[in-house]
Amino acid sequence: MFIVTASEMAGLDRATIEEIGIPGIVLMENAARGAAAFYLEVVPDLLTRRITVLAGSGNNAGDGFVLARLFKNQGADVRVVCLRPPENLQGDALTNFRILDKLCIPVRTWEEQGDFDTQWSAVRESGTVIDAILGTGLKSEVRGLYRQVIEAANALPVPILAVDIPSGLDASTGKPLGTAIRATATATFGFLKIGQVVEPGCDYVGRLKVIDIGIPPTLSEKHGIRRRWLTDESLSAWVEPRPVGTHKGSAGHVAVLSGSVGKTGAATLICLGAGRVGAGLVTLFIPASLNPILEVKLTEAMTYPIPETPGQTPASAALPEILEFAGDKQALAAGPGISLHPDTQRLVEGLIAQAPCPMVLDADAVTIVSRTPDLLKKARQPLVLTPHPGEMARLIGGTVQTVQENRIEVASEFSRKYGVTLVLKGFRTVVAAPDGRLAVNSSGNPAMAGGGMGDTLTGMIAGFLGQGYEPYRAACLGVYIHGAAADRRFGGVATRGMPASDLLDDVPEVIGRLERLRSRS
Length: 521
Ligand SMILES: NC(=O)C1=CN([C@@H]2O[C@H](COP(=O)(O)OP(=O)(O)OC[C@H]3O[C@@H](n4cnc5c(N)ncnc54)[C@H](O)[C@@H]3O)[C@@H](O)[C@H]2O)[C@@H](O)CC1
Ligand SMILES: [K+]
Known about the structure:
The structure is a single chain. By secondary structure, the chain is of the alpha/beta class. It folds into 2 domains: 3-223, YjeF N-terminal domain (Rossmann fold, 3-Layer(aba) Sandwich); 249-520, UDP-N-acetylmuramoyl-L-alanine:D-glutamate ligase. Helices cover 43% and strands 15% of the residues. It has 21 helices and 19 strands. The chain has helices spanning 6-20, 24-42, 59-73, 91-102, 116-124, 144-154, 194-197, 218-222, 232-236, 264-276, 291-297, 319-326, 342-354, 364-371, 389-396, 400-405, 407-418, 453-466, 471-490, 500-504, 507-520; strands spanning 3-4, 50-55, 77-82, 107-109, 128-132, 160-163, 185-189, 192-193, 207-211, 227-230, 253-257, 281-287, 302-306, 331-334, 359-361, 383-385, 421-424, 430-432, 438-441. It has a 10-stranded mixed beta sheet with strand order 10-19-18-17-16-15-14-11-12-13, with helices on both faces. α11 links the parallel β12 and β13. α3 packs parallel to α4 (91-102), α14 (364-371) packs parallel to α15 and α18 (453-466) packs across α19. The longest helix is centred in the C-terminal third of the chain and has 20 residues, at 471-490. The two termini are 15 Å apart. Potassium ion (K) is lined by residues 60, 131-135, 162-165, 167. In the C-terminal section; belongs to the NnrD/CARKD family. Belongs to the NnrE/AIBP family.
């Protein structure tokens, strides 16, 4: 499933009409038919309620007029309130407006000079409101009557069903422009819009469904749309079936540099994560004095004691050994719990410049990189960085607020500038590849807010890299399966109290689910 901006959507609509030859009015009919079926799922007794369609002046209103007709045909009590004089309507919206009269559907036009409360009283009696005021054609801040109407609608104790996007929400950024409808459900057309999947927009859409309105899927490729929504369906095709003769030597060997005094848990979780996604072998480089602890904590993974600093953190003297060992390995994960000790920093810098295999850099390694990000350009092998918003802010020398308000732009710009795959963690994790591919994750839940979650993710991404997945796919699979395993374990049941190691138990089942989905399609 692809995610588009408002202007990309307009381009795809135009191409479907002009190049493919599907008339706009057909798309409008398809849109409304799909939306009507979805709204009936969301509000099963919809046809017994009084339905008010709030209409603006563009094609979004046109969709609303078709919905009014469809529900009237099914016996519902429907009325339409035009917030702008119908003389402003054009094209397909106008055609569908004219049909209302023939079907005796009551239409009221808002009188700008009239008293608001008197005119609103008719809407107040509605059992459900259909929001067809503004769609992807929103151009500027919502003011005046539209603003009043949106705020009054939000205060009604009835379901609001949004057509394409809640009115007032910027489809490209997810920010309300002035104000926006808080919908019970949104039927969106053709593709997801960025504004529906990122914060704060995702809090406005309610239940969200993409309606197929007949835009040929090949058009998205032709128009260079490369943003993906990570779901079971979109990822199943990427899970490679495992040959029956697979053995530990052919399933990838992952090396891990993690842990220092007080941080042996991070090292453990990375190793477990890599193993749970199917890495054949895992070896942990650990400061020598901590080796006895890891020998006990880890069962399947092997340990490799390395020279350490006086603070029991990895020392740069370990670099030659690590490079030699990693020479015939498939992936290296480095960073969690290694400290910011200056000698550990030298080790990380050496690894970035000389590592002989793809690497995942997380936590302390990311903080070390943020001191001299140009270091990343020296890497000989692909890098995946997995910052949380605070680490991302350090990487770009900005604030957490800037990062959080512009997650997609920040991730894609950094990825392109430094030639790395970037995983910006947090709600709706963003994965960006240097060639412009981008994904937003749909899985995960608040029970994941706890220490160690990032370590398990680092291990999972390294585990996929180790099995030969290219960095962007390894990152997307790791991110999605991580959240999906947490959903399987806790989603909808509990919102807190899930140890990071718990979700790992569910990882193989989630991968199995994707494999089964792949084999069916
Ligand atoms: N062929 C197509 O292009 C299709 C479009 N569809 C619908 O069409 C919508 C887009 O239609 P339009 O491009 O006509 O745009 P909209 O219907 O979203 O709104 C455009 C109108 O609102 C006005 N407007 C914009 N910002 C405003 C603001 N802040 N305050 C007050 N008025 C404002 C504009 O001047 C214009 O008159 C989609 O969201 C979707 O619902 C669907 O019918 C599917 C097919
Ligand atoms: K709308």
